[in-house]
Amino acid sequence: MRCLDEATFMEVMLGGLPPARVAELDAHLDTCPSCRRLMAQALQARTSEPVDAADSLASTGPSSSSAVEAAPLARGTAVGRYLVLERLGAGGMGVVYAAYDPELDRRVALKLLRTRGLGLELEAGRALLLREAQAMARVSHPHVVPIYDVGTFGEQVFLAMELVEAQTLRQWLLVAPRSWREVRDAFVQAGRGLAAAHAAGLVHGDVKPENLLVGRDGRVRVTDFGLARTATSGGGEVPRLVGGTPAYMAPEQLAGDGQVDARSDQFSLCVALYEALHGERPFQGATVDALSLEVRAGRVRPAPRGSSVPAWLHRAVLRGLEVEPSRRHASLEALLAALLADPGARRRRWLAWAGGMALVLGAVVATHALHAHQARACAGAAERAMASVWGTPHQRAVEAAFLGTERPFATAAWAQVRRSLNAYTSAWVTTRTAACEATRVRGEQSEEVLGKRMRCLDGRLAEVAALTQVLAQADADVVGRALRAVESLPAPSGCSDSATLARGAEPSEALRAALVRARALEAAGRYAEGLSVALPAAESARKEGDRAGSAEGLLAVAELREQAGDYRGAEEALFESLWAAEAVGHDRVAARGWTLAVRLTGERFEQFALARRWRERADAALLRLGGDDGLRARLHVNVGRVLYVQGHYAEAEAQHRQALELLERTVGPESLAVSEVLLKRCAAWTSLGRTEEALELGHRALALREHALGPEHPEVGMALAELAEVRWYRSEFAEAERLSLRSIEVLERALGPEHPGLVSALNTLATTRIPLGWKPVELLPMLERALRLMEASGGADSSDSAVLTHNIAATMARAGRVQEAGRLLAEATARLERKLGREHPTLVVMLISLADVHRMQGKLAEALPHYERAAAIQDSLVEDRQNLWGQTLLNLGRVYVDLGRPGDAVAPLSRLLAGRERTHVSPMVGAVGRFFLARALWDSGGDRQRALQLATEARTLVDDQDPSAPRFRKDLEAWLARHER
After folding, report:
1. How far apart are CA 632 and CA 630, in angstroms?
2. Is 261 marked active-site?
3. What is the percentage of the chain residues whose pLDDT exceeds 70?
4. Known binding-site positions for ATP
5. Binding region
6. Annotated active-site residue in 52, 206, 587, 628
7. pTM of the model
8. Domains of the chain: residue spans and CATH
9. Among 8-12, 381-385, 912-916, the least confident range
10. Which of 31, 50, 225, 437, by CA, is between 20 and 30 Å from 513?
11. Which of 130, 95, 127, 99 is nearest to 224 (CA)?
């Protein structure tokens, strides 16, 4: 190869060479030192910063490691579970290999990302890349190259991706003449992929023709998110992007000020689209500095003379090239809408905003009509169908309803709901278009399969229609649940699995319309309205002998009743549904039903043996179904909840951990479903005494909810209450009080003062203020309010109600109302035993409180068996949840001494002083324990010299800050005076 001139180096620096040319130049630099020097000199002369020559080949900036790669991995090298086959190429961020996945028997593309050049230490750089790679793996979209797996290989991070037989979009433009419509349509596909990434909180950062692949099937895919960054809360901004290709950079990227977001990708896409339409880039400049001046000044070249690009399309592109990000299109979706708004092809839109069942049925009928009309383009049909249920009028109606509630979290909730629904509808349009093209354009799929996919997608569209109708009539409760309702929509990608579609039963149109509306109402918290829709539909299906439809309808009824607190009614409907589902082999309903049965029977009715049996049924249904990660995660969550109620905290944590892994893979690590499981794990770790781990999980859940919902959302209040409880167990009472108060403020503003969601925060606040010196009479109103709220929500007979009753009774006892406290404690203890059994860990504190009340009344013989039971339960536990072990043994020994049974007191008091790693014994407990062991040894005729030594040690351990210290010290000194003679 001849030596390179300066113009070639500038072309490399500005970007735009195809990969083959880059690789050729890369190899040449290895053999031509003079060329390498010339490259470095040219770059240093034309930019404000010196740039290493080899680093400029694929992109410029500090993120690019040397393009001169070390020896390639040998064929057969194991990277994770993948076996390297051959090297495909290299870019600024890493090297790509073809590899074999032996577990799934398929070829994949394996990209190894470099950690050098990030400006971070090795471990920090690798951790950063790993987190970002995991974020990229969340994006599942037909126009994004899918990432199957993420892991580490030595100092590097690897991505396992789909191996696509494709050419770059630049190559696609060169191999044949392309009309403006073909170019526009290709970029619309790329834009949909980018929009999906933005919806997942990612910014690409290096959009250019080389990172847009055109497959042999004609589908455009976005790839190489090597410069992507995850968005932060607030304005959706990202940390400074490390690198990019100057010719396609937005002004804010060239400035390097860190204000880079989704609108920067829009700018880059429009640069590439302008270039593809007109044959030249929109901004002049042979050097980085010259180009930067033109871009920042907004000096776009005029369209070439004789261009066939229509003026409306040119205007849409120019808007995406505005210098100020706020003047560009509001989003990628808005840009795509402008690119498709061809006046010559515009059709009459459906504008009617129908209500109720007519809207749902109309959406279904409309999409069937669009499907039947073969003359319409696939993409246009999908766009029109979605516009009929989530167009501008619908969005305005939902926004008005949200803001009309005047709740403090309504604005943030609307922004998140709009973003999430836009992402969902974009994925639906793309999936429907791909399904249509597979049959009508490429002939790869039969009409029968297309029909099944279209019917499935019709159902998904009807779900959107039903939900948007509910959201357009939103009250405060609906606004609070809205984002979770959107997350509960079934993914459009499920309609691409022919095997799954073949296993599913087809409900009638009327039943499907009713069910999607009922589910939308359930997700929004309108359970009574949902039942009024679902119950008649289920009854109708049963009367018509439609067992599959009856199974689906009755399951919806069971789910709604369970959410509304009608547990017996839910149980009745659920088992009717399961009988029908099992009778006709409707495995999806069976799997969902048995999974619900686990929670209903185990957590609500606390019938644990039956819950274990239903878990086995759920497992069997999932196996018949062929597996479903979403349902499997739900089963793990429900099993974990039941185990937690039983006091099996370690097993509960393991179930929640498995659920978390599945959910992070299926719905992404930042979904609300993930935040809920994080809080379940937080509670389990707290109960195991692992409060450091609990705090980490709780803070992560809180951050997810604040980012998704805003700081005033009720789910944020719930997370604050959970963190307050962790702080209480850590004896960090001031912080627990602060978090409880903040939780109560958020929940009262969002839900009102009578909502049962306040119970936990009120209980924690009251119990926190005891060690902070508040008087019992000041705390009782908080606890009594919490109990009233729980009873009003249908939880009067629950184990949680028993715990609250105990806390009220214990507070009464401190206020001197001992007799009344004893009655309530006996009632609460008996109720908890009935619900959870006689060995449950929560009984320890209740038994101690009951025994303490008997002791206050001088009823030592009645107190003794309660102390003995508390000690026996404590001995069976691995953890010491509330640091009660030492207090239990101390009280047991004291009662034995006071009852005149000093010989029986020696064993528990000796165990107390011997100590165990799992507990912490305070100095005051140690002092009292030594004194009573001294008395027990002396009075039982034991080692009296040791007794005197223990009493003397006790004198040095007395905590004079303890309220009981003066009385104790007086008794101790008197005993020593009598026995030291």
Report:
1. 5
2. no
3. 81
4. 111
5. 111
6. 206
7. 0.58
8. 6-56 (no CATH), 165-228+243-248+256-307+316-346 (1.10.510.10), 361-493 (no CATH), 628-706 (1.25.40.10), 883-981 (1.25.40)
9. 8-12
10. 437
11. 95
